Amino acid sequence: MKAMRVNNWTSGPALAGSELPRPQPGEGELLISVRAAGVTPTELSWYPTTHTKEGTPRKGAVPGHEFSGVVAALGRNAHGFEVGQEIYGLNDWFADGATAEVCLTTPQSIAGKPASLTHEAAATVPIGALTAWQGLLERAKIKPGERVLIHGASGAVGIFAVQLAHRHGAYVIGTASSANLEFVGKLGADEVIDYRSARFEDRTEKVDVVFDGVGGETLARSWSMLKPGGRMVTIVDEASKDAFFIVEPNQKQLAEVAKLLDAGELKTYVGAVVPLAEASNAYSGSVPNKRENGKVVIVINGQT
Predict the structure, then answer these.
(1) Could you tell me the mean pLDDT of each successive run of 10 residues in the chain, 304 residues long?
(2) CB-based contact 73:139 (threshold 8 Å)
(3) pLDDT at residue number 9
(4) What is the pTM of this model?
(5) What is the rounded CA–CA span in Å between residue 67 and residue 88?
(6) CA atoms within 13 A on the CB side of 181
(7) What's the confidence (pLDDT) of residue 8?
(8) Residue 6: what pLDDT?
């Protein structure tokens, strides 16, 4: 199969094209014919990209762990899906990802593709939507009427965090650049603060929940914004052990997100679409004519 792998061997492009053996689904696995894969540029530096589960160095990883596609084959005892079914979801961080013609996953990591979305649009959803869902609804357990401050509100995770917090009746404050203030407001934020021209501490009152997608100084300054009993969630700063978390695949949540997307209660955004051969540009941030908002998607043409 054709794939794009992390280029650990030479200087040059972030990813290099390669021909790899076509994987076969093992016990409880599904083989997915990938139609589109979402791009998270920081993935190239993640621990599972650079190391194996055993901790040894890993070279030539295939990135792209969120995708939309079609079930191509079922391994033994892989239940709940049929060959030919359109799905979207994730696969294991340590496995080869979806920047390839096919990839392996498990039933609990995917759900039926939202019927109203193209494969390109569906591929932008899994990581961002599940991260927002798990951070706000499972960890922070937001309640109607609570004040929620979301840093990075126009980012790949932030756009879902704003929408979900608004949908659950929270009063949403988002931080973003001046170019994205109107966009974040349309997502459902009640207040939007330009982080470059004002300190959020000076522009809004204390909050019940901080959802941090920025880290660093922004996170450090945010602790003082919490009311007594307030909750901090960060997806960036691993040192904040009580607040940090990593998204996990969840079939039930993916199915709920799909329903909300099909009902028009959630929206996603595609920043740009590139072919597999240009995947390296997508990861290095050199895609021309990218829209201001939305995730870059790599399209892999119709394999089975």
Answers:
(1) 92 92 97 98 95 96 98 97 98 98 98 98 98 98 98 97 98 97 98 96 97 96 97 94 95 98 98 96 92 95 50
(2) no
(3) 81
(4) 0.96
(5) 6
(6) 11
(7) 87
(8) 96
- Owner of token pair 């496995």: 95
Can you state the percent helix, strand and coil of the chain, rounding each to 5?
Answer: 30, 30, 45
CA distance 57 to 250: 28
All structural domains of the chain, each given as residue ranges with its CATH number in brackets, are 2-125+268-299 (3.90.180.10), 127-234 (3.40.50.720)
Structure tokens at 185: 């407001």
3-state secondary structure of 299: strand
Strands 226-234 and 15-19: unpaired
Alpha carbon of 94 to those of 48, 53, 249: distances in Å?
Answer: 5, 7, 13
Tell me what pLDDT residue 11 has. 78
Query: Of the candidates 98, 41, 107, which has an alpha carbon nearest to the alpha carbon of residue 67?
Result: 98
CA–CA distance, 99 with 296 (Å, rounded to integer):
12
Rounding to the nearest 10 degrees, give the CA dihedral for residues 274, 38, 35, 59: 90
Query: Contact 298/37 with Cβ under 8 angstroms?
Result: yes
- Which two three-digit tokens encode residue 80? 């709940």
Phi first, then psi: what are they for 133, rounded to 5°?
Answer: -60, -50
Label residue 87 exposed, middle or buried (CB < 10 Å: 0-12, 13-18, 19+).
Answer: buried
User: CA-CA distance, 72 to 86, in Å (whole number)?
Assistant: 10
Nearest Cα residue to 164 out of 207, 186, 193, 132: 132
What are the start-end ranges of the H helices in 135-210?
A: 158-167, 181-187, 200-203
Closest by CA to 63, choosing from 52, 49, 77, is: 49
